[in-house]
Design brief:
Layout lengths: L4 H18 L23 H17 L1
Length: 63
């Protein structure tokens, strides 16, 4: 069902980064921080969600 999803996520992140750059917005590629679950190759498990939460908390505190 999710065949090729990992590559699609990489391409989507690149597209989002490009749009953010042209709009002078911040973009954080969370795929560089967290990895997908081995169960389905798309979704994140609890540990990966926590990694993202910790990283976003640090970014928010900087503002």
């Amino acid at each position: 069902m999710y065949k090729g999803a990992e590559q699609k996520v990489v391409q989507l992140a690149a597209a989002f980064a490009n749009v953010a750059s042209t709009k002078q917005c911040s973009f954080y590629d969370l795929a560089r921080l967290a990895s997908v679950s081995s169960e389905d190759g798309v979704h994140l498990d609890e540990k990966q969600h926590q990694k993202i939460s910790d990283a976003l908390e640090a970014i928010i505190r900087e503002f």
